[in-house]
Each structure stands twice: as C-alpha cells, then as structure tokens.
Amino acid sequence: MTRLLLTSWGVLAAVALGIQLVRADVLATLGPSWSLSFVVTVGLGIWACHVEPHNRAAVRLLLFGCVALTWLAVSVGLIADGMSVVGNLVAQTLGLAMVTAQAAALVRYPDGVPHLAAERWLVGVLGGLTLLLPIGLLLTSPTVVPTWILQFSRDSDGLVLPVLPSPLHVGGPDLEVLDRSALAIAPLLAVAIMALRYRRLDAAARLRMGWPVVAALILVLGLVVNALAEAGALPHLVGDGVLIACHVLLPVALGIGIARPNLLDALGAVRRTLPYAILSLLILGTYVAAAGALGMTVGGRNLQVAVVVAVVAALALEPLRRTLLSRARRLTLGEDVPRDELLLRLGDTLEHTLDRRALTESIAETAREGLGAHWVRVGEVHVGRPLRPGERPTATARIAEVGEMSCGPALGGRPRTRARLDTLARQATMALTNARLADELAARLAEIEASRQRIVAAEETARRRLERDLHDGAQQDLAALLTRIALARRQLARTDVERLDATLETLQSDAAEAMRNLRDLVSGIHETTLADQGLVAAVESRAGKLPIPVEVSCGPGVRDGRLAAAIESTAFFTVCEALANTLKHGGAQRATIRMVLAGDRLRIEVVDDGRGFDPAAVRGATGLVGLRDRIAAVGGTLEVDSAPGTGTRLTAVVPAGA
To answer: Where do the coiled-coil regions begin and end (predicted)?
Structure first.
C-alpha cells in the first residue's frame, strides 16, 4: 500500500510540475537542470521498489523524489502565480523536507537498516529545521526570504522577484545563512555518515555502495568541469550539460545499487579504469613531448621544419604508442579475448575433453576467461568466486543439455555482450549433446557386453542343469531297465514263468515311466505344444496346470497368427517365468495374461493380485535380469510395475515380425 501511494504521489507531482513549468514559461531553464533529476529519481525509486519491495532504502529513495517534485512544483507555481507569503512558507517547508528525505535516503543506504546513532541524529535535526526554520525566517528577517529555487533563478536567469515584508518580523539573529547552507551541508554530512556506515556493512551491502560512490566521484568531476565553464575555460553549454548529466547519474546510481547491484562491479571498474586512464595520459603525453622535442631539436627556430619533423616523428612513434597502450590495457583491465579467439579456445577444449563433467567444467572456465567475468555457471558447475548473498547473474543464455549458462560481473567492468554468451551457449550445447550421446553409447555398449556375458553364463547354467537332469533322471531310469532285463533273462533261463511275467510287467511300467520323464525333460527344454500349436495354445496349456485360476485373453490376430520361433519361445518363457514368480513369491490368488498386437510389436502383460514388491529393491535380482536380457536379445523391452500390497504387472514388448 505504501509503495502504491508513493507511486501515485510521484506521478501526480510530475504532472503538476509539468503544468507549472509550462504556465511559468521556464521549461527551458528549470526543466533540464532540476526537473529531469527529480523525475529520474522518482522513476528509479518506483523501479527499485518493484524489484526490492521489502528494501526500505528503495521506499526512502522514492519518498525523496516525491517530496522534491512537490517542492519544485509549488516553487514554480510561485513564479507563475506571483510571490506570496503563505506560498513561499509552504515551498520553504517542502524544500527542507526534501533535504531531510534526501539525507534519510543516503544515511540508511543501501538496505534501510539503521547502524549508527549519527543517522538518527542527522535526520532528527533536519526534521526539526523543517518545522522551525521557515517560521524563524519570518520572525527574524524583515522581508520574506524566497525559497531556494527562486533565489537561484533570480541570480542565474535574472528572475525579478517582488520584495514582500515579513508579517511576523520581530528581529533576532540572521537565519538566512543557515537556510542557504542547509541545501549543501546536509548532503555532505549524509555522505560522511555513509562513509562511516560502509565499514559496518557486509560484502553484499558494500557491493551496492559501489554505484553511488562512483556516481559521487563523477559528480565531483562534473562540478570541476562546471567551475571551469564558469571561469570561461570551457563553453557554458558543456559545463551545464555535464553538471545536469552528473545530477541525473546520482539517483540512477542509487536505484541500480538497490535493484541491480551486480550489474557491474562499479568499484572494480574504478580501480582498474583509473590506472588505465593515468597510464594512457602518461603515454600520450610522452608521445607528444617526444615528437615535439625532436621537431624543436632538428628545426630549431625554423617553425616549418620543426612542424614537419614533429609530424614525421609522430608517425614513426605511432606503432610504439599503440603497443604501449595495448600493454597498459592488458595490465590494468586484463586480456580482452576477441570472439574468434574465444571460439578457438572453446574448440580446443572440446577436442581434448571427453568426460561430460570435465567438459562442462572446461566450458565454464573457458567462458569465464573469455568473458572476463568474476564467475560463470554452466548447469550445476560453478567456476570463479562464490556468489554473494542475493547476487544475480548479469547475463544468461539457455543450454538445452544442462539448463542455462550464466555469468557474473566482469573483472574491472570489461564489457561483454549477450551475443558472445549466446554464441558460447550454442557451441556448448552441441558439445554437451555429443558428450551425452557418447556417454549413452558407451553405457549401451557396456550393457550389451554385460548382457552377452550373462546370456553365456545362463546358457552354461542351463547346460549343466540339463546334464544333471539327464544324469539323475533318464540315465538312472535306463540303468534300472537294463538291470531288470538282465533279471528277466536269468528267470527265462530257469524257466521261472510266473516270476518272469511279473518282471516283464514291471519292466514295461518302468519303460513307460522313463518315457514320461524324457517327455517332461524335452518339454522343459522346448514346449512341444508351442512348436505344434503356437504361442496361445502353449500359454493356455501351461496356465491350466497351475493351482490358481489364470485368465488368458488375446487381441485380434494373436491366436490365429504365428510368430518367429525365437519370438514365440521368448514370449512363452516370459509368461512361464512371470507365472513362476507369481506362485513362488507373490502369494497371488489369481492371475491374468493379456497378449495384444500393436503394429509390429507384441505386447504381453502378466498381472496378479499378490503381495507386490518394490522394484528398486530387487533391480539386480538374477531372475529379472536374466528375463530382461533374454527379451533384449530379440529387440524387446521389459517393465515391472509393482508396489507392496498392490500386486504386480509385468509388461514385455517384443517384435512381432514372422
């Protein structure tokens, strides 16, 4: 609500000021010098309040702008409507209120949190002056003292002001000196308190202070330029333009320090740019002095010869000057990597790095060096200095593989463009995509190799089981038959007919049992029904032998058609293995088998109502791994959907080509 009220106040005050400037016909004089600065202050305050809604310093900045615009609108109204005692009293009160609001915004910058008793002391004293000084001026001065803006317009623009007697004059000390000095002294005291406050701030708050510090230095430079213009050393237009620009720059710096403190390392820019400027001036001065000295030495008093020699010397020394300036720039601002060189470095990094994590780190480090940034972040990889509290990236580009690439402020404020970051991001995207595909291919090849080894091991296990079954089953049955045949021969030799008949009957029964055992063994190796009648008949036959009810449903074309022998065998094995797990581990009461053709794929589902399990807990189980390998060997996939207490759904998809 407070921000909304202040925003509305600022907009209305700006509109009112514009109307008064037009009515008083002073748009060309007071418009650029005062109005622009205060309008910018309100705009920056609104922006800072929007970005940092909980920062009280942003509210104070907006309040300062609103009071300043209101004071200026009322003061310009006195020019338009004529001087009055009451109007001037209101304007003086608003002017002192503006100074108080300005001091409050500065001493609590950049977070609005008090740290020093001097902050409250200064704001309290200025608040007292706001209430008492305008009345004091009426009491002590015989005439009405105009508000500041009217005094400045009278002195600089020749504004004619009427002399109005003070209706409250009783005499006393001269308070005009205090009135004139309040506008200059209050901001200076506020800046001094800011300097004391700086020592108590953390790193993030000090970073925010960098902007107004740089703006204050530029403002001092602007004051110097304006003084030179006033002295006649520079055109007045230059002096006025520089001073207005500097006045506008200060609120801009305050707003950026609150809302976008990481836009640029302002203090770092000064620390590096100032030495570069000094070195550049020294090199340029030496260059000019050397050329001039050569011209004077060779030409002597002949001015034409001296000029020609100086020009030739300047041309001869020009490559040396460029070299020295380039080295001074690298020394103070660091190496500025051209875009093509940056791409070459990145390409070399991509060529010699294969690991995806190492590749991401190399891309981030190369980008940081090329952009001259304090830090660069590529996905989860961060290189450079750690992020400061509340710090935001100054530029961001999208990378499909890892999310985004972002960078922090440049070292010493060196420029970098979003286009350069976007170029790096595109190159990084292609490199990381290739690295991902290479990792996936390597993982797939490793899985194929592991699957091949598991299949070989499974075949060896099956061979040994077959050997054991033959040894313990059919071989023992045949040995028993041979023994009984020998017994029958002995009985025949003794003509023991009764015992011979009983022995032959037992021998016939044993032969039949051996035949059944061999048939069961062959069926375990390859289901006879599967080869003779197809997949559906084999599944129904196996389901009918289970102790729980099993429903078998088939989609169109499954029952009548035949698939390749390897596909049918794999599908049948999958169903048998799933049903075996249902009986052995699931404790199910019923099961359902569904087989559906979907294009060129056969989808098999085995669902039971058993106790279920956590698939992640049995991911490496031998049975499931072997089943997955067998299905993968024919180009299929296997999924297991289960949870404790919810039953199990096993879904296999295999090619349906004949």
So the answer is: 490-517
**Which comes out higher in pLDDT, residue 174 or 47?**
47
The answer to pTM > 0.70 is no
Alpha carbon distance 421, 363 (integer Å): 12
Nearest Cα residue to 360 out of 423, 442, 425, 417: 425
Tell me: pLDDT of 657 over 70: no
Q: Which fold has domain 530-655?
A: Heat Shock Protein 90 (3.30.565)
Report whether pLDDT(80) > 90: no
Q: Is the dihedral of CA 42, 45, 51, 54 positive or negative?
A: negative
Query: Looking at residue 653, what is its pLDDT?
Result: 92
Who's near 62: CB < 8 A, 6+ residues apart? 3, 6, 7, 10, 42, 45, 46, 48, 49
Q: How far apart are CA 268 and CA 180, in angstroms?
A: 37
Nearest residue to 597 (alpha-carbon basis) of 562, 632, 648: 562
Q: Which residues, 6 or more positions from 481, have their beta carbon under 8 angstroms from its beta carbon?
A: 507, 510, 511, 514
* From 99-108, 434-443, 549-558, the region with the lowest mean pLDDT: 434-443
State phi, psi for 649 to the nearest 5 degrees: -125, 115
pLDDT digits (tens, 9 = 90+) for 140-158: 888 888 887 777 777 666 6
- Between CA 243 and CA 222 the distance in angstroms is 5
Q: What are phi and psi of 650, to 5 degrees?
A: -105, 125
Q: Which of 607, 604, 619 has its CA nearest to residue 581? A: 607
Nearest to 146, CA basis, from 92, 67, 96, 185 = 92
- What token pair was written down for 569? 């065998």
**8 Å CB contact between 558 and 602:** yes
What's the CA gap between 542 and 387, in Å, rounded? Answer: 66
Handedness of CA 414, 420, 426, 430 (dihedral sign): negative
Q: Where are the domains of the chain?
A: 2-201, 269-333, 448-525, 530-655
Q: Which residues face 405 on adjacent strands?
A: 378, 397
Q: Which DSSP category does 178 fall into?
A: H
Residues 6+ apart with CB under 8 A from 516: none
Q: Is 382 helix (H, G, I), strand (E, B) or coil?
A: strand
Has residue 171 got a pLDDT over 70? yes
Residues 6+ apart with CB under 8 A from 134: 89, 92, 93, 96
User: 3-class SS at 336?
Assistant: coil
C-alpha R_g of the chain: 47
pLDDT at 605 over 90: yes
Question: SS3 of 171, please?
Answer: coil
Please name the helix (run of DSSP H) or strand (run of DSSP E) that holds residue 367, with its range, or none.
helix 356-371
